[in-house]
């Protein structure tokens, strides 16, 4: 079991909270949403793990140099939020001493169509946020350059989940 975790794009911190309850000693949640981090703080307090979790409100890539290296880096549904995924993944690999877990949209026509519709709807509503489907081979290449090898993978209809282990 990893002792430390960095949850990039953590949202309300569901994964970090579960990791803490499973035995991780300390987690850092980085997210740009103050509301999500506030919900994280309240839930952590209620679960009795508030003293073992740190929250950082920021874009991970922008503040990565200020964060420590950890055993496990988690990117759950965050790669699709970055048009330039390589700097995100490069920083993520630099911060993991052992494991890196990520979930991202599968590169399938139906996923691309759904994201196109979602992005069009956001544009109509005046929301500048966009989602992206990146090529899995390109994602794997960045992680391999960072010293990681895929050790497990699982997919659903729309999501690809992968666990990478640092090469020794």
Descriptive key words:
alpha/beta; Rossmann fold; globular
Describe the structure.
With 168 residues, this protein is an alpha/beta fold. The protein has one domain: Rossmann fold (3-Layer(aba) Sandwich). The chain has 6 helices and 7 strands. A 7-stranded mixed beta sheet has the order 3-2-1-4-5-7-6, with helices on both faces. The longest helix has 17 residues. The radius of gyration is 16 Å and the shape is globular. The mean pLDDT is 96.
Helix and strand layout, with pairings?
Layout: E1 4-8, H1 14-22, E2 26-31, H2 34-47, E3 53-57, H3 60-63, E4 70-76, H4 85-95, E5 96-105, H5 109-125, H6 136-145, E6 148-155, E7 159-166
The CATH topology is given as Rossmann fold
| CATH architecture name | 3-Layer(aba) Sandwich
Report the sheet-strand fraction: 25-35%
Q: How many strands, which pairing sense, and closed or not: the largest β-sheet?
A: 7 strands, mixed
Specify the overall morphology. globular
How far is it from the N-terminal to the C-terminal residue, by CA? Answer: 18 Å
Task: Give a brief description.
The chain is α/β, with parallel strands linked by helices and 168 residues long. It is built from six helices and seven strands, in the order E-H-E-H-E-H-E-H-E-H-H-E-E.
